[in-house]
Amino acid sequence: MALGRDVLLDVLRTEGVTHLFGNPGSTELPLIDALAGVDDLHYVLALQEATAVGIADGYAQVTGRPAFLNLHTSAGLGNAIGNLTNARANGAPLVVTAGQQDERHLAADPLLSGDLVALARPVSKWAHEVRTPDELATILRRAFRDAMAPPTGPVFVSIRMDHLEREVATPVPPRSPVDHRTVAAEVGGLASFLAGPDPGSLAIVAGDEVARSGGVADLVEVAEALGAPVYGSPLHASVVFPTTHPLWQGMLAPHAGAIRETLGRFERVFLVGGQAFMVYPWAEGAPLPEGVELAHLSPDPAQPGRAHPVALGAVGDPAATLAALHLELHSRGRFTPGAGVLDDARSRRRADDAAREETALGRYGPAPMHPMAAAHALVRALPAGTPVVDEAITTGVYVRGFHRVEKPGRYLFCRGGGLGWGMPAALGVSLALDRAPVLCVVGDGSAMYSPQALWTAARERLPVVFAVVDNGQYLILKNNLRGMAATSVETGRFVAMDLDDPALDFVALAAAMGVPATTVEHTADIPTAVRFALASGRPHLLHVPIAAR
Questions:
Q1: 502, 404, 387, 489: which is closest to 444 by C-alpha?
Q2: Smaller CB count within 10 Å for the chain: N or C?
């Protein structure tokens, strides 16, 4: 009979797993020992569990398959919680395991034991502790299946360490392929809703579920058939629509008033995705303008009508439903937009892009560089198709605005809002793309949440360029206070928001982790620095001091 650890490796192989992510401890030693005898499963070592989660998150989002993550019992799971909240918000399909103490002395509350299921439940689709070695294979199969079931996300399995060393009598069940590409039942109603308004009276809002389902090309066809402008949902995390397309209007700001102003000129809005109109911080009024009718297509039946009333809610796979919707519109004669719609959009887009480029170039100048200029120089230095991982916070709006990308998986942002995701996620993206070069633009505050990612980048020899845009403070918090007319603004005293005393030495920090680093003080020097870093084929950190704006 097989041992529990053999069952675990069998499930991993048959689920297509090639990389395991984690930071091992004593309760994980049976798994680590099993890996010593195999060559087809690669353990990616992180120096802290939150970093391991971020790497797995980036890997899962780009591959579109569940990533396998192994954490160290209660303490390690606790370290991981922050980035697991991000993974849950990002919809990253993760199979998260942690080693529980040997069941033969669990009643004595041994060191590092605990209620792992209760700890993991708030950040997981479901959480379970394996009760007998014979249920191990079934639970692991279920975990891989459910991580990929809409809405995708992390699932958690606690495994008692002695179960991996005990014999298992039950055979490993075969993998069960499940097709989740269901077409919403309301395709005809959606077509009528979308085709009803006069040209220019309909807007489309695209969420991450469009990219996750592989439906970007289908959404392009629907948008072109309707001649409808397309906005990204607030803080969307991936490429939901080609940013080079003339109908692309950029991201809706995560502010209720700004969303109302943008959508108020339309009669109807078609939202494709999960959560509708996420905003932060609170502001007076609803994001959806009064009198604007909303249709909401989501793979998650809990979302349509959850926060905002809908005229039509539909549940189904976005890609499959959009493809069927395009055929329905075609059959009704809505195959091409009204005369000149795309040409007009193209002209406006060229003018807007030219104005934006002129503004950015006009901000090139002496140190400290303007954040808009820094983001422009970083993005424009990249070869076409280079993935960008964005955790630049206040500078990120410029990174997102200047990046030109058509394929999902080439731009990633964290919807969860927890810091410390970007640097490790960039490693996962590189691994998922066969160790391809990646640019990670990260704020100084964010970088200090997961600097351990630099060590893993060096160990794995991943060609990730970490551009740390450093303004020496938590600028987003200061800006929020400025919007509140707070005492801090009146006195000019911002408590616990400055990172310049002592100043952070990112070059020395990178060197300590085995990563070469360069400080770039002038915008004009950024392209050369980026090209040099990419040409090295190894990780490199660029320290980019920027002005506080």
A1: 502
A2: N
Give start-end residues of each CATH 3.40.50.1220 domain in the chain.
Answer: 187-344
Helix (H) / strand (E) element for 412: namely strand 411-413
From residue 235, how far is each of 115, 185, 388, 517 by CA, in Å? 34, 29, 15, 30
CATH of the structural domain 2-168, one choice from 3.30.1490.100, 3.40.50.970, 3.40.30.10, 1.10.10.10: 3.40.50.970
Quote the pTM value.
Answer: 0.96
pLDDT in tens, 98-110: 999 888 898 888 8
Question: Looking at domain 365-545, what is its CATH homologous superfamily?
Answer: Thiamin diphosphate (ThDP)-binding fold, Pyr/PP domains (3.40.50.970)
Q: pLDDT by residue (tens digit) across 249-276?
A: 999 999 999 999 999 999 999 999 998 8
Distance CA 266, CA 291 (A): 9
Condensed to tens digits (0 to 9), the pLDDT of residues 126-155 reads: 999 999 999 999 999 999 999 999 999 999
- 298-355 pLDDT, tens per residue? 999 999 999 999 999 999 999 999 999 999 998 887 656 554 788 888 999 999 999 9
Per-residue pLDDT tens over the stretch 54-85? 999 999 999 999 999 999 999 999 999 999 99
288 half-sphere exposure, CB direction, 13 A CA radius: 21
Place of tokens 């294979």: 137
Share of the chain above pLDDT 90, in %: 85
* HEC profile of 129-155: ECCCHHHHHHHHHHHHHHHHCCCCCCE
DSSP annotation string for 197-260: SPTTSEEEEE-HHHHHTT-HHHHHHHHHHHT--EEEPTT--S-SS-TTSTTEEEEPPSSHHHHH
Sheet holding 127-129, edge to edge: 42-45, 19-22, 67-71, 94-100, 155-160, 127-129
Nearest residue to 51 (alpha-carbon basis) of 455, 386, 478, 341? 455
- Alpha-carbon span 212 to 57, nearest angstrom: 13
- Three-state SS at 540: strand
**140-157: b or e for each residue (b if 16 or more CB lie within 10 Å)?**
bbbbbbbbbebbbbbbbb
Q: What is the mean pLDDT of residues 368-377?
A: 96
Cis peptide before 368 (omega within 30 of 0): yes
Beta-strand relationship, 2-3 and 167-168 = antiparallel
Q: What is the pLDDT of residue 213?
A: 96
**CA 97, CA 4: separation in Å to the nearest integer?**
14
What mean pLDDT value characterizes the chain? 94
What separation in angstroms does the CA of 55 have from each of 424, 447, 448?
5, 14, 16
